[in-house]
Amino acid sequence: MPLAALCGAMFAASPFLIANAPYESTMGLVQKVFYYHLPSAWMFLLAALVCGVASARYLATGVIRHDHTAQAAAELIVLFGLLTLVSGPLWARRAWGTWWVWDPRLTSSLVAWMMSCAYLILRRYGGPGSERLCAAVALFGMANVPFIYVSVNYWRTIHPATSVVPTLPVSMGLPLWFCVIAFLVLFMLLMTMRVRLEAGRSRLDALHLALDE
Amino acid sequence: MRVRTTVHTAFRTICRLVAAAFWLAPVLAFAQPPQQDGFVPLSELPPQDQLPAAPLLIAAYVVVLVAFFVYVGSIARRLNGVQRDVERLEVALKERPRS
User: Which of B67, B75, B93 sits opposite A197 (nearest CB)?
Assistant: First the structure.
């Protein structure tokens, strides 16, 4: 509950900070999409890492708790990935003059998002034993994360490089880091809720078995 | 017989159109855009070519916030459902006669 209150307060305060941030000189107003786009993208990558690590631990140990974490994180990959892939083109339409370009950053992000969708579909309709197959899919998804992050530095693309964030002036960096923390708190809140849901489902399965015996 | 010929001809025409579309799609997709004379900053574009930024910005923020509310609502609904079922089954398990 304190986490939910903190998250709500931070998201309520964020528009004021974003509105007070200065305009970027070439893109103007539309550049302010950045303050939600970048934290969404970082949470998307973080969720993919959490899902991959939890899946690896599940494959290694067989502990069901890790599988719950992986499943929760997979849903968050889809959520934050969708927000990144929607907010990005809305920004790009004005800044680049096009909704989408098939550059390495955008394409690899789309692939990672589609892999997490595949994970959830497989999980839903794969039947018994699909959890181990899903864990393997999650490992491939995690392997994509470093590629997504560094792709803008290794290939010449239209997307800004990773060096932009450290060079931001304080007036733009402050609202950005505030939003990053707000998104991180939201990520933790959603993970907690989602893992609790999976634990509840496990308990429900155990009760059904106990009643059948 | 005549009807069959007409249907057959129509089918062949549709097949040709679909094949042409498959052939044309990549050609159009990978066609080079017309060459531009030079770099034109966004602010110097004529008014009819300028896109208003505010609707795009508002759309981005609305999409993010609506998605969060919908997702939190969905988790809360699923959690309540599971919790209710767990309580119901626990009661049923307690009330079951022991063999």
Answer: B75
